[in-house]
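Marked as duplicate of an earlier ticket. Keeping the data here for the record.
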Amino acid sequence: MTVATQTFINEIDTLAEKRKNEILAAEDSLLISGKTYYVSNDGDDKNDGLSPDTPWKTLDRVSNADLAFGDGVLFKRGDLFRGSINTKAGVTYGAYGNGDKPRFYGGDRPLNDPKLWVEVDREHHIWKWQEKILDVGTLVFDEGKAHSVKLIPSYINGRFVCRNDENKLFDMKEEMVRDLDLYWHFEDKFSTSPSKGESFPIPDLHDTLYGGDLYLRCDKGNPATVYSSIEPVAKRHMFYVSTNDNVTIDNVCIKYIGQHAIGAGTVSGLHVSNCEIGWIGGSIQHYLGTDPNYPQGGRGTVTRYGNAVEIYGGCKDYRVSNCYIYQVYDAGITHQVTTNGRKYAMEDVLYENNLIEYCVYGIEYFLDINLDDDGSYMKGVEMKGNIIRHSGYGWGQQRHNTHTPAHIKGWSYHNRASDYSIHDNIFDRAAYRMLHLVAKDEASLPKMYNNTYIQHDGGMLGQYGANNVAEPEILTFDDAVEEKIEKTFGDKNAKVYIIK
């Protein structure tokens, strides 16, 4: 074990910056066997799209195109596209031209028009956006220099109540006490069936086209005059893969997405490479009768979500490589599923050479086997060469379950696995556990080797072990941590640095 000097920390910062710049400067090298279509801000959806001189213009045109297996869709570098894309099986999505990666933003428009902000409560500095808007995970000001904290009331017994005190009615002006506090309000769309375990209808957010009213506290004046750019992290996916096999997404920039930047169900052949993905998640997923994020259970009824790259279900040949991922409400990269009696196989998964910063979970995975399912498994999972930093220090820590962050988060499920390895990664400072690697049986735990660990003295190293008898101990990062890493994690060649 080595005491981490400021010089060493500077070297790690420089290494991360170098990786980031390499990813941002990655060249286009896609091989497309079928037709190639082009999309540009200067295009026209009436064009054939088959050359840079006759490009399409909108993401809707891409989503509705009759694309064949082997085709490719390339977006002009330097351009900005808004909305979302429904992918097609066997299709590659990438970039062409010169300059920065093509950008994909979730909001229909930036919120930088002063005429559309009206002060509705001068005493409390509360402003209202004058158009209906999709639910937002947060607002991002001046490309990340500031962001909002979102206030979400619970809905219990037909009333919006404060999440931390269900006996207190939610009053926006009383709760918006900080500059840039955010509240998205809706009240006229409810489910036709009762809430889980309750007898009252609940707010229904399944219709992603449903808009509500956006309120923002801004102490310095009209938000659009205080800040030059305001981007809503809007409730939509950007690349919706669904169950389309053999989709490749390369060399694009995806930002300000309230759901998942790239989201898939059970799928084979999803490859994501050379992408920049930031400011993701935080939208409301659903209201239910109970909120499992509260340790005491039962209090609160609302769940937020949002990952950068997610497969929920089974998968095969799943690759995320050479991506720069940051500021995600939930996970940077994940494969996960609760089986609910069905059988899922997660095979041939590779997360390689990514830079992941300021996410709640850098990499998340879980196989929650329930309802007597004996057929689900993970096989051939490899996480290598990644730099994962500052997990739990990003904007996602405005969540209620603040004790859960980790660089790699496997939770404490069954997690049946074989041929699973985690090696040659750099794990740099986590707010809570660095690693949460637990499975029912020891044989399902990952093989660890050649990893680098950097953490504050007295911080958490995390958990590693089988939970078939009891939950493994949470280990502390202290003067004995090198022995713990070798003995418990089995990482005999680890490099360990403690920040005193």
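See parent ticket for discussion. The CA atoms of residues 319 and 470 lie 33 Å apart.
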